[in-house]
Amino acid sequence: MTTTTPQTLTFAKAITEGLRSALESDGKVLVMGEDVGRNGGVFRVTDGLQKDFGEDRVVDTPLAESGIVGTAIGMALRGYRPVCEIQFDGFVFPAYDQITTQLAKMHYRSRGRLQVPVVIRIPYGGGIGAVEHHSESPEALFAHTPGLRVVSPSTPQDAYDMIRAAVASPDPVLFFEPKGRYWSKGEVTTSPYPTVAAAGGADVLNRARVARQGSDVTLVAYGPTVATALKAADTLAAEGTSAEVIDLRAISPLDVTAVAESVKRTGRCVVVHEAPTFLGSGAEVAARVSEECFYSLEAPVLRVGGFHAPYPVAKLEHEYLPSVDRVVDAVDRVLAH
């Protein structure tokens, strides 16, 4: 499916079409995971792909995340481009050893002779009223591991562009999909599948974007909290405060330049993510902003995120997740300095 005319797709469907484009264009691409084939995945992101590409390209695997990732690593070493689905964020930990000790290190360990172009799709984050182990945000654990790209789209267009760039990338990519955004809709313009060479330096995997321009404070977010930051910016605008919203897209590598350019203009920064703030991705952003923008900052960099506690039961998740009110309160505090 390639068209220059934008069409309205849900976030989930945009990923589906991105995967379809990759499967159509490169016979070495395959999708694998629990229930990804006949059932189309727990969120139906892979719906219809097995029917169109067959059981050899869209593979239903046993219930064994370590086995899924380990098999994908072996296939990547043989020239394939596997895309693994982990059904929920909390289920990735059985594969943690394979990801951090094998997938992340093989290129470095082989002095560049080996490439392992594996994509691991992980639906993550809260807001859907799920049970334990179904609403976590473990992205910082993987961003801390050198050798992995860790990315998270926030819009249907970026979901489409980024999954294709991730599949074409020579690097292993942890692709965190904000499950609370799966049903959000937006315009998507499709295009020819990128070449591996082009995707290796694809801006969409390396560079943050300015989601909203502003002059008084910079709100930095990624994945599910970009929408929260934009809503907070609307509320702040009604109060006379102009907030710029930066969508990081990638947590590793981190586009410090884009964030610093914004903060040097606004003088204030608030970082928003669903994961606990303690040692989270926002801590790295705050540290880098303090280093790069020390003489421009008018106030300390503040973080708004989850609490340092296990993700709560569904009835309490609205107290745990960053809300518009909590973001606005943080902005009020940095403006008060």
Describe this structure in words.
By secondary structure, this protein is an alpha/beta fold. Helix content is 37%, strand content 20%. The strands form 3 sheets. Strands 3-2-4-5-7-6-12 form a 7-stranded mixed beta sheet, sandwiched between helices. Helix 12 links the parallel strand 13 and strand 14. Helix 3 runs parallel beside helix 4, helix 10 packs across helix 14 and helix 11 crosses helix 12. The model has no long low-confidence stretch (mean pLDDT 95).
Shape field: globular
Beta-strand portion reads 15-25%
Query: N- to C-terminal separation?
Result: 52 Å
Succession of helices and strands: EHEHEHEHHEHEHEEHHEEHEEHEHEHH
Helix amount: 25-40%
Largest sheet: 7 strands, mixed
Question: Which class do the helix and strand fractions yield?
Answer: alpha/beta
Give the secondary structure arrangement, pairings included.
Layout: E1 7-10, H1 11-25, E2 29-33, H2 49-53, E3 58-60, H3 65-77, E4 81-85, H4 96-103, H5 106-109, E5 119-124, H6 139-143, E6 149-151, H7 156-168, E7 173-178, E8 185-188, H8 196-200, H9 203-206, E9 209-212, E10 217-221, H10 225-238, E11 243-247, E12 250-252, H11 256-266, E13 269-276, H12 281-292, E14 302-306, H13 317-320, H14 324-335
Parallel strand pairs: 2-3, 2-4, 4-5, 5-7, 6-7, 10-11, 10-13, 13-14
Antiparallel strand pairs: 1-8, 6-12, 9-11
